[in-house]
């Protein structure tokens, strides 16, 4: 069964709160981050990694395609496929080696550019800018009732 949760992020604190819920309830598997340029995909990723215990900076892997992290023994791979010209480039860069990492978290920005080279998402986060571009409208879709309940509890006002 698919669960979908919509919320509005009005501030950095809202984004941090969402990241904390995700870090607690979804810390392995495949996540798609969907949204236009500047929607906040990398910002949410930064707060997620910080919520998981990362101390350093978090940069967008726009040019490197992937930025690996190891936080408290947990492998996390942040992919940004924006500059990808052909999904086959992922095969050439050795994506299979990354994907074979057990119990890892895989974050994919611009997943539509990955074609069949990337696995299906277990969590899809769609971020849209509001008309005034001050708030973000976020839709989270997953098959996790636990995550759904945690989101409902954390964002009762949404």
From TrEMBL:
The keyword Nucleotide-binding applies. GO terms for cellular component: cytoplasm. Signal peptide: none annotated. SUPFAM superfamilies: P-loop containing nucleoside triphosphate hydrolases. InterPro entries: P-loop_NTPase, T6A_TsaE. The keyword Flavoprotein does not apply. GO terms for molecular function: ATP binding; metal ion binding; transferase activity. One of its GO terms (biological process) is tRNA threonylcarbamoyladenosine modification. Belongs to the TsaE family. PANTHER family: TRNA THREONYLCARBAMOYLADENOSINE BIOSYNTHESIS PROTEIN TSAE. This is tRNA threonylcarbamoyladenosine biosynthesis protein TsaE. It comes from Acinetobacter faecalis. The lineage of its organism: Bacteria, Pseudomonadati, Pseudomonadota, Gammaproteobacteria, Moraxellales.
């Amino acid at each position: 069964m698919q669960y979908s949760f919509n919320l509005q992020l009005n501030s950095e604190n809202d984004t941090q709160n969402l990241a904390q819920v995700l870090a607690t309830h979804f810390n392995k598997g495949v996540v798609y981050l969907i949204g236009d340029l500047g929607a906040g995909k990398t910002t949410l990723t930064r707060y997620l990694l910080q919520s998981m215990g990362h101390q350093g900076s978090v940069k967008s892997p726009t040019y490197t395609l992937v930025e690996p992290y190891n936080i408290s023994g947990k492998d996390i791979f942040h992919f940004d496929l924006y500059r990808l010209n052909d999904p086959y480039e992922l095969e050439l860069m050795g994506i299979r080696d990354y994907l074979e990492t057990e119990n890892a978290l895989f974050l994919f920005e611009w997943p539509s550019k990955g074609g069949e080279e990337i696995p299906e998402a277990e969590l899809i986060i769609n971020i849209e800018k509001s008309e005034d571009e001050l708030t973000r409208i976020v839709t989270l879709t997953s098959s996790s009732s636990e995550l759904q309940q945690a989101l409902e509890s954390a964002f009762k006002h949404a």
